[in-house]
Amino acid sequence: MKISVLLLFLLFVAATFAQAGKLYFTDRGAGRVQRADLDGSNIETLVMLPGSNLRGITLNLPEGKMYFCDNGGDDIYRASLDGSDRVSIVSTSLGFPADITLDPLAQKLYWCDRNNDRIERANLDGSGRETVVETDQPYYLDLDPEGGKVYWGHFSEGSIFRANLMDGSNVETIVSGLTTVRQVRLDLGAGYIYWCDRNATPSRVQRRLIEGGPVEDLYLGLDTPHGMTLDIPAGKIYWVDTGTNNRAGSVGGRALCRGDMDGSGPVEVLINLSQPWDVVIDPRISDYGDWRKRYLPANAELDDPEDDVDGDGIQNGLVYAMGNRLPVISTNPPGLEYAVRKNVSDLDDLRVELSTDLRTWRHNADGGSPVTADFPATGLPGDPFQFIRTEALPPFDLATQLYLRIALPSR
Prior knowledge:
Largest sheet: 4 strands, antiparallel
Number of strands: 31
Mean pLDDT: 93
Number of helices: 2
Strand content: over 45%
Distance between the termini: 34 Å
Shape: elongated
Strand order of the largest sheet: 4-3-2-25
């Protein structure tokens, strides 16, 4: 038997949803918490706090909540993702609460208190508060919950540290010799730690293997890079630049910017702001339009589903639908093994079609008897793709020539 595979892309139909992928960011200069689409479009103001000094922000997406710090009143706030139901959950014994992040495994909040020289944690309602580690001027942090580590930078020294997450013991210096560390982010899968060095000459975004090796300059010539987050599946870094150094000829000052995690692409200046301080990402996408904003450059010309933005011979729409894993032929019985993106609105009709002559194509929805059977794999929790094996049914499983294609019909 000879089996051939064709990938056929026909049409995606755009859909509009109330909640899709978003950037959430604080602008201390304007006293605002805002959000926008992943390409910087559709900016919304969620919280207005005149006289505030807004700092770090983090999200709890399953609960639909955000948390952010205000040095104006020394408060940590919780609010719904649309900015409603705002309440102060920690308001005592704080002195310059800076960055804040969430441990999704233990359901705990962690934050740096620069003036009180400590990293603290609490339950999501602010109760059960405790000091994790006492350390000089901690400023920005990230967590490795499964590895049991907390990482943080020093406010005025060029060093990054880590310690045991449970009790703050075993403090280690991970990176030294920097100028002024801002934001610390981990890509645990690849083993990298990322940071901003705001007062270096030139100001820069850098990375290094967590366990050692040379420091890589990713983006140079910035003004004052500060808060930063990683979109690891998309290979993107987002950062905000407060613009307070006022460096002549710098790129992205007083703006929210995006680049590639390996530094290969240009700086994209997505949103011009007053004095942005921190940014986090809601990576959820609902359709091809959201995927385009997340994965493709904001000014990309070849951004339609039938285009091929990177020239690799695979249409954008197929990358969206199936990721970077193209179908694989299976035998005995013949069929395909492939991935399909889950929890989106425009892939419901994606199907496998088969033919023995490349003229007549059959599928399960054409009114006749079923011609294929699907066997979905269980998959890992949180994986955005569903893995499926589709097998040809009799009599096609015994055909001398069999052609298979994955199609998304127009609607």
